[in-house]
Amino acid sequence: MTISLSDDLALARSLASMADLVSMRRYDSHDFTVSTKPDRTPVTEADREVEHAIREGLAAARPDDAILGEEFGATGRQDGEHRPHRQWIIDPIDGTANFLRGVPIWGTLIALAIDGVPVVGVVSAPALGQRWWGAIGLGAYTQRSGKHDEPLRVSAVSQIGDAVVSYNSLPGWIDAGRGDQAIALATAAWRARAIGDMWSYMLVAEGAIDVATECDLQPYDMAALIPIVTEAGGRFTDINGVDGPWNGTACATNGLLHDSVLATLR
User: Fold this and answer.
1) CATH assignment of the domain containing 230
2) Which long-range contacts (CB under 8 A, 24 or more apart) does 142-151 make?
3) By CB distance 3.0 to 4.6 Å, which of 10, 105, 112, 231 could disulfide with 120?
4) Cα-flanking dihedrals φ and ψ of residue 76, to 5°?
């Protein structure tokens, strides 16, 4: 059976709808316990429950595909030293710290990577009442509660001095030894904000802000963002200009600003 990217995108959106039911039930009731991972980041029962539900859905619909998830690691068919040909990459709740404090900026991230390249991405933020999705060659869209699908398009800002920048977490930049560069970018911009997590990248795709960048990331933090930002006309690399979600940092821009931002961060 031939599977198209449209089929995979439809599946990812369906899985996101299922995940939203699980996560919102927990979020609204505050019915979860919190533990701490070895890296001192929080994890809740809701994180595990959401990822488990997505994995069950993938096992039924795409049993031959590999999976990489934040909570349960890499499973399925792996190809030795090479990236799996088809690998779903899941962050069940991106923004767990916000989730457990009752801040609505969190979401479920579902991506499909083919030979290591993210080609399908869905970001669902039910507490914000919004979802974003995209697939290579199929465009990028968002839907707000009760409204029709809207195509996404990045901004046309071409100078950093006119740009709105999200740098996420200044301590993260300092820990990575790039605090001075982050401050240089923030002070060069028209406005600088620490919006954080998946929302800043979706705001780039919407054209509401122009740059989102941060350090200390994992592939599941980024993979779903990439098709959405790039199909909206933007560019997504690490802070050294390398494509893909595999190198621990992210720089998403409207494309026009990308080279200038990378030069400032070096």
Assistant:
1) 3.40.190.80
2) 142/202, 142/205, 142/206
3) 112
4) 90, -165
Q: Are residues 11 and 142 in the same domain?
A: yes
User: Residue 237 and residue 226: Cα distance in Å, rounded?
Assistant: 9
Total domain count, the chain: 2
Same-domain status, 219 and 129: no
Cα–Cα nearest to 74, from 223, 225, 250, 200: 223
Confidence of residue 81 (pLDDT cuts 50, 70, 90): low
User: What band does 193 get if pLDDT is binned at 50, 70 and 90?
Assistant: very high
Beta bridge partners of 144: 130
pTM: 0.93
What is the domain extent for residue 214? Answer: 160-265
Q: What average pLDDT does range 86-109 have in this prediction?
A: 95
- DSSP-derived 3-state class of residue 63: coil
3-state secondary structure at position 260: helix
DSSP-H helix ranges across 33-106? 45-61, 96-101
